[in-house]
Design a protein that fits this description.
Mean pLDDT: 96
Bound molecules: NADP nicotinamide-adenine-dinucleotide phosphate
Number of helices: 7
Largest sheet: 7 strands, mixed
Oligomer: single chain
Low-confidence stretches: none
Strand content: 25-35%
Shape: elongated
Order of helices and strands: EHEEEHEEEEEHEHEHEHEEEEEEEH
């Protein structure tokens, strides 16, 4: 099986991964970046990006990620499309197995695997996933032209999904479990000003109802969070936008985790509990979770890795 070795290997291709690659390549660490299945990460399933500095005009998420990819390649990163299926962090060099069958070894490793959408976890959601239940409006919104949809959640993602869907669907109903959004004010104002977006406060989705043939969503049953009263609501689609969970499965038995399940890093650095392994972006950040903060952490990870590689090389030379 093909074996690839690099002083620096980066797992993940969002803003953290590509920024680590850009800095790592410019430090002559000949980085290999392993993209995972979704090259570009979460920004590839979003549309307008208005808060990434440096662009006076609204830019598109997929375009931004393509620019980062091209920049990383331009400065000398080897970008490989592979999904890591196991990681062996007790070995030196660190060893990763790809879904392709290829093996990757690294003197230093940056984990930038990001986060994935969370689901409600109810059986009807599972049954109707892909048949009217989705966690990505930009991927699936197209199927709801002129129809009615429900968006669940109260953060930036839910508001953005609702605004996006309002251009496609006839009516968008946002269901939120509290009576105030946590998303940015500017987005909230846009949502409240929109004539075909309605908000139902203090409710959660108790069940998603559907037809079996063809398998499709017909409605939701909402439950009032205090009274427990159930209210049926007719809808053609349900978009779940209740936040994200870090992609840590490969590493959770090997690295120290935070109580909320993110990779723990030493304060003020990207150092994990294993020397030579660094973590950056949404896989380690449960607080800011922005493209620009992920990019910043990616930069820090490459600088931390460079410093650590230099120090270990000096120690080795001194011992010889
Ligand atoms: P989030 O900010 O964590 O919001 C998740 C929302 O879902 C909250 O309103 C939460 O309710 C609700 N929720 C969580 N679990 C639920 C459940 N089981 N049932 C019902 N509701 C539930 O997640 P996000 O909106 O995906 O955003 C994640 C991060 O990415 C944030 O930092 C956000 O600012 C950032 N982001 C930024 C942009 C942008 O800048 N344009 C766009 C998208 C995301 P509570 O409010 O009651 O907790």
């Amino acid at each position: 099986m093909p074996h690839h070795h690099a002083p620096l290997v980066i797992v993940g291709s969002g803003p953290a991964g590509y920024t680590a690659a850009i800095y790592g390549a410019r430090a002559l660490l000949k980085p290999i970046l392993l993209t995972g299945v979704q090259d570009g990460g979460q920004l590839t399933i979003t549309t307008d990006v208005e808060n990434y500095p440096g662009f006076a005009d609204v830019i598109q998420g997929p375009w931004l990620m393509e620019q980062m990819r091209l920049q990383a390649i331009h400065v000398g990163t080897q970008v490989i499309s592979d999904q890591i299926v196991s990681a062996h962090l007790a070995e030196r060099p660190f060893r990763l197995m790809g879904d392709s069958g290829d093996v990757y070894t690294a003197d230093a490793l940056v984990i930038a695997t990001g986060a994935q959408a969370k689901w409600l976890g109810i059986p009807s959601e599972e049954r109707l996933k892909g048949f009217g239940v989705s966690a990505c409006a930009t991927c699936d919104g197209f199927f709801f032209r002129g129809k009615e949809v429900v968006v669940v959640g109260g953060g930036n993602s839910a508001i953005e999904e609702a605004l996006y869907l309002s251009n496609i669907a006839a009516k968008v109903t946002v269901v939120h479990r509290r009576n105030a959004f946590r998303g940015e004010r500017i987005l909230q104002e846009r949502l409240f000003a929109h004539p075909n977006i309605h908000v139902i406060w203090d409710h959660v989705v108790d069940e998603i109802t559907g037809d079996a043939d063809p398998r499709s969503v017909t409605g939701v049953v909402l439950r009032h969070v205090r009274t427990g009263d159930l209210t049926p609501l007719k809808t053609d689609g349900v978009f779940i936008a209740i936040g994200h969970a870090p992609a840590v499965d490969l590493f959770k038995d090997q690295l120290k985790m935070t109580p909320s399940g993110y990779i723990a890093t030493k304060p003020g650095s990207t150092n994990t509990s294993i020397a030579g392994v660094f973590a950056a972006g949404d896989v380690t950040d449960d607080h800011y979770r922005q493209a620009v903060t992920a990019a910043g952490l990616g930069c820090m990870a490459a600088l931390d890795a460079e410093k650590w590689l230099m120090a270990t090389a000096q120690q080795r030379a001194a011992a010889e």
